[in-house]
Amino acid sequence: MTNTLRSICLFCMLYFTVLPSYTAAMPNTHIYVIVSLVDNASQGIVPVPAKIGNGDDPRSNLYWGAAYGVKTFLSKADGWRKLGCENNISDTILERCQFAWKDKLTVTADAYRGSRIDQAMLDFMQQAATPPNAENREMVVFIGHDGLMDEQNLPIIERFPKHAGHDKQAVVLACLSDDFFTGHLLDAGAKPVVTTFSFMAPEAYVLEAVARGFANHASEAELRSSAGNAYAKYQRISAKAGKSVFGANSALTMSRQ
Description:
Layout lengths: L1 H24 L3 E8 L33 H7 L3 E8 L5 E9 L3 E8 L4 H13 L7 E7 L25 E5 L3 H11 L3 E4 L9 H12 L4 H16 L3 H5 L6 H7 L1
Parallel strand pairs: 1-4, 1-5, 5-6, 6-7
Antiparallel strand pairs: 2-3, 3-4
Helix pairs in contact: 2-5, 5-6
């Protein structure tokens, strides 16, 4: 009995000694990523091979389960670990995965059914309009086809929220997103820090580079530079060409207000 009590006391002492350092190590920096799965059947895109273009199947989808999809790429990238995944969150969200980068950052990524890109964009805008938690650093990211380029999705704009400025950082990795999303993000009170000025492949190496920069408190210019460098590396183009894809600098955003 005495030995048992001593063991319990020792355990309690060790637990409460370790707990503060463990709590301190938990990152307060978080990114929420909404991935609209590419879908040949419902999106206005140049069709991709059928295996990676099925918006109902995240397992091999170009933006989720393929080599440069969010789930696959972050699961294998240096310094990253997959914390866990859950399937069938809803009829719209087919899978949710959580990742961590070192002890600095956590990422929650949701794979949205491709035919529900309208809901994916609306949820992204609602997240962008929600002021960040005062105790945490938060960013919201949209990845996928630029659904605002498709006429059938335009009615969703009427439901985009508006909010006073709160400076939550927002990223849109989709074709020509500066033209189609920046104004709406500003109306939502968010700060669009990485958007695009051209057609592009919204693959996860760009997200990974931006996420690391955000975790390290990079400036907006540094985030865009990191995105451009990653894009150049994987697309095998010049750094200058890669950096020309990304924008949302202060001069441009101020001119839209």
